[in-house]
Amino acid sequence: QVRLVESGGGLVQPGGSLRLACAASGFNASLFRMDWYRQGPGETCELVAVVFSGETIKNYADSVKGRFTVSVDNAKNTVYLQMNKLKPEDTAVYYCTAPSLRGGSCDSWGQGTQVTVSS
Prior knowledge:
mainly beta; 6-stranded mixed beta sheet; globular
């Protein structure tokens, strides 16, 4: 059974950092494409970062490029999203998913983890 649990969100000031974690179970995350999405208040579900092929390939939305880094810890079967230089517009609920194993969108992936960037 595929299960993904996000954690690590919180309240941070502009310019600060957070590291989100996505604990995977039921499959080996390093063998699949893993995506991070976010949905801000009144916004659509936005693809933020992608990692696959054993971290050989990483892609980022233009809005986060140079500030966010995605990685995979094979031993923990966990995908991370390191977020630096956070901006108020990064405020959103963040979700991870394995698109080849689970369909749907932000509205159907569970509670995610809330990131709030505010002074």
